[in-house]
Design a protein that fits this description.
Elements: H1 15-22, H2 24-43, E1 49-54, E2 59-65, H3 75-89, E3 96-101, H4 112-115, E4 128-133, E5 136-138, H5 140-146, E6 150-154, E7 158-160, H6 174-182, H7 184-193, H8 199-205, E8 210-212, H9 217-232, H10 236-251, H11 254-268, H12 272-280
Parallel strand pairs: 2-3, 3-4, 4-6, 5-7, 6-8
Antiparallel strand pairs: 1-2
Helix pairs in contact: 1-2, 2-3, 5-6, 6-7, 10-11
Length: 285
């Protein structure tokens, strides 16, 4: 995820516009009514769950669990998703996240009735995130993969933006992120053709970072964790800071990004991680 852009579905749709137009006091009341209304609508479409497992090594697993519907998001699952991501935001020891589906299927999108209740997601998550794609990632599921920092695919899996066949375009920010990932021409091809993207094609166009050799669920997860570990070694404070400066460099103006980078540097200078590294007198060959 451009710091993982799927959470805060219920919170961010009105924030910036309302704050600018009406001021904080009016925003608070309007936002609360809107959030409660959306939450009520989503609760009308139950089923499945979003499960979270956090390990002591700072790597978490977020599991989309609705096998009876090929792991499609229900309304209550969207609420679960928001809650799990908020929990991860406050997990100070967290460094990495693997997003995957239960029973060898990633995600087949969502209940369209529930989607109507969602505003455009605007979340930012300070962990390095990986989408582990086993089986199919369709529609909203394909969009969810683009919200992660990296994408790993297993043999026989596919990513497919099927929105066209439903008379839709991506609504969770998937088109915007897809263009940033693979460029205008490739994004236009995938969205207008609704073509199947297999692992080899995904790797060729830059949508996929690696094809895993494992096929069973347990081995795939272990392989994905090993792949992610090469980027999450060391202090969680440093890893989260790196994620922050990289994302701000991509999404903010140069002036704002430089200010943010300087500010983040200041939080690390003289920190425990910095002093520990100095004590070790690390040599760089």
């Amino acid at each position: 995820m451009a710091m993982f852009c799927i959470h805060k579905c219920l919170k961010c749709g009105l924030r910036n516009q309302t704050l600018k137009q009406r001021g904080l006091s009016v925003y608070t009341s309007v936002y609360r009514v809107n959030e409660d209304d959306i939450k009520e609508k989503l609760q009308q479409h139950p089923g499945g769950s979003i499960d979270l497992q956090k390990d002591q090594n700072g790597i978490a697993n977020l599991i989309i669990n609705n096998p009876e519907r090929k792991n499609a998001f229900s309304g209550t699952m969207m609420l679960d998703f928001r809650d799990r991501v908020e929990e991860l935001e406050h997990w100070t020891n967290g460094k990495g996240l693997i997003v995957r589906g239960a029973e060898n299927t990633f995600c087949s999108g969502s209940d369209l009735r529930a989607v109507k209740a969602m505003s455009n997601p605007e979340c930012r998550l300070p962990l390095i995130s990986v989408a582990l794609v086993q089986g199919k990632a369709l529609g909203g599921g394909a969009e969810l993969t683009t919200a992660c920092d990296f994408r790993l695919m297993t043999s026989g899996s596919e990513i497919r933006f099927v929105h066209k066949h439903m008379g839709l375009v991506p609504g969770w920010g998937g088109a915007t992120r897809l263009i940033k990932l693979i460029g205008y021409r490739n994004a236009l091809k995938l969205l207008s053709s609704a073509q199947h993207v297999n692992p080899a094609t995904g790797l060729k166009i830059g949508l996929v970072d690696e094809i895993l050799s494992s096929t069973d669920e347990g081995s795939c997860l272990e392989e994905a964790e090993n792949w992610l570990n090469q980027y999450t070694g060391g202090s969680s404070q440093v890893i989260r800071a790196i994620k922050n400066v990289v994302v701000s460099g991509r999404e903010l103006s140069q002036e704002e990004s430089l200010k943010n980078e300087k500010s983040i540097f200041g939080t690390l200078w003289g920190s425990h991680a910095n002093l520990k590294a100095l004590d070790q007198n690390i040599k760089h060959n």
